[in-house]
Write a structure and sequence with these properties.
Order of helices and strands: HHEEEHEEEEHHH
Strand order of the largest sheet: 1-7-6-5-4-3-2
Largest sheet: 7 strands, antiparallel
Distance between the termini: 79 Å
Oligomer: single chain
CATH class of one domain: Alpha Beta
Structural class: alpha+beta
CATH topology of one domain: Chalcone isomerase
Helix content: 25-40%
Radius of gyration: 21 Å
CATH architecture of one domain: 3-Layer(bba) Sandwich
């Protein structure tokens, strides 16, 4: 019986090693993995089952630029993170290697069904992007998804990198907008200097208005 299982494992190993790597193979791997999966040309495969991950927060019409005008539409931003990264953060207040955030932008509706006021999320997805930490590829990176299943790496010169680096509460991530994790970071003492500086400036501004 031991020999049988040994032979079976060897057969599975050789089949796996010799199997061709195709886009379909990459997508299948992504569906069954909560770690980053890349295609042969360096694109990131979108994790189709991200809605089974840990939900962190939702923002409505959020933007960090004072000049942005969202009068023509409203959008909800839903943020999910892979379960392994979430568990590590709860334990340490830090994000481990292979952390993946999925940002899903959905059109906000106001007139539908029995709704008489406020906004609700519709089935229309406006945007999808990923912020991930992969030390084997240089650390944190952003990926945009114009295609359904694969996304392109956003160059490090993009403003999103400097904004996150300068203002992210923990390790270039906006934990300040994740209500269930903010207190954990406070207790673990993992706030970034940039975030603490922003908070001090905000406190001074509020004090000056009294």
């Amino acid at each position: 019986m031991t020999r049988f299982w040994l032979l079976l494992c060897l057969c599975v190993f050789f089949l796996t090693v010799n199997a061709p790597w195709t886009p379909a193979t990459a997508q299948t791997s992504a569906n069954n993995s909560t770690a980053p999966v890349y295609t042969a040309d360096g694109k990131l495969v979108f994790p189709a089952k991200y809605r089974e991950w840990i939900y962190l927060t939702t923002g409505l019409d959020m933007d960090y630029s004072p000049t942005v005008n969202l009068a023509e539409h409203s959008m909800f931003d839903n943020v999910f993170v892979n379960p392994e990264a979430y568990k590590a953060f709860v334990a340490t207040g830090k994000w481990p290697d292979k952390t993946i955030f999925v940002l899903e932008g959905r059109v906000a509706g106001s007139k539908g069904s029995i709704n008489k006021g406020g906004h609700y999320q519709t089935t229309d997805i406006m945007s999808r992007s990923i912020h991930l930490k992969d030390e084997s590829r240089g650390g944190w990176a952003f990926f945009g998804f114009d295609e359904p299943t694969t996304g392109n790496h956003i160059p490090a010169q993009a403003v999103c990198y400097s904004c996150h680096a300068d203002h992210g509460a923990v390790d270039t991530t906006f934990v300040q907008f994740y209500p269930t994790l903010l207190e954990i970071a406070r207790q673990k003492g993992t706030f970034s200097p940039g975030y603490l500086k922003d908070e001090a400036a905000m406190a001074d501004k509020k004090e000056s208005k009294k």
